[in-house]
């Protein structure tokens, strides 16, 4: 475990791991398991390479590239809308943006249209959205 603690001494890595857990995309326990696996596969990474860790988490399908990029830039909120986890940003339209998402109940991928809160606020303050395409149609 000394390699793991040395790896986590890297401030950038520590911040990324903390944000990934805070986002809800991965639990703290699961992240610890992934870190142990990462260090076992990459013993030379004890000094802390965030890029290599991110590549590992994407390869293991723990995070998407888009999610990892958001976390790397300090953004850890907005990955979940109701029972959907946002996987990637697709397009920006005049009044809304589209995102690829996965239904956390069925596991199906969908395209969500999400309006900014200032344009079309939902009653509870959450983003207004609509499912545009089911994964089989998209």
What does this structure look like?
- This protein has 138 residues and is of the alpha+beta class.
- The chain has two domains: 2-72, no CATH class; 80-134, no CATH class.
- 37% of the residues lie in helices and 23% in strands.
- The protein contains five helices and five strands, in the order H-H-H-H-H-E-E-E-E-E.
- It has helices at residues 2-7, 11-23, 28-41, 50-59, 65-72; strands spanning 80-81, 84-92, 97-103, 109-115, 128-134.
- A five-stranded antiparallel beta sheet has the order 1-2-3-4-5, covered by helices on one side.
- A hairpin with a 4-residue loop joins strand 2 (84-92) and strand 3.
- The mean pLDDT is 85.
> Distance between termini?
44 Å
Total of domains: 2
Query: What is the global morphology?
Result: elongated
Across the major sheet, the strand order is 1-2-3-4-5
Average pLDDT confidence is 85
Assembly classification = single chain
User: Which ranges are low-confidence, i.e. pLDDT below 50, for 5 or more consecutive residues?
Assistant: none
Helical segment tally? 5
Structural category: alpha+beta
Work out the strand percent. 15-25%
Give the total of beta strands. Answer: 5
| Strand/helix succession | HHHHHEEEEE
CA gyration radius, whole angstroms: 17 Å
- Characterize the largest beta sheet: strand count, sense, and whether it forms a barrel: 5 strands, antiparallel
The amount of helix comes to: 25-40%
């Amino acid at each position: 475990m000394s390699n793991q603690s040395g790896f986590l001494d890297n401030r950038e890595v520590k911040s990324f791991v903390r944000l990934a857990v805070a986002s809800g995309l991965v639990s703290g326990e699961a992240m610890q398991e992934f870190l142990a696996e990462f260090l076992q596969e990459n013993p030379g990474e004890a000094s802390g390479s965030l890029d290599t860790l991110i590549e590992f988490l994407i390869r293991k399908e723990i995070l998407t590239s888009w999610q990892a990029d958001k976390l790397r830039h300090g953004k850890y909120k907005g990955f979940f809308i109701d029972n959907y986890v946002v996987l990637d940003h697709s397009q920006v339209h005049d009044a809304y943006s589209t995102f690829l998402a996965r239904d956390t109940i069925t596991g199906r991928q969908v395209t969500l249209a999400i309006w900014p809160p200032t344009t079309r606020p939902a009653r509870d303050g959450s983003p207004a959205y609509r499912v545009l395409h089911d994964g089989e149609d998209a």
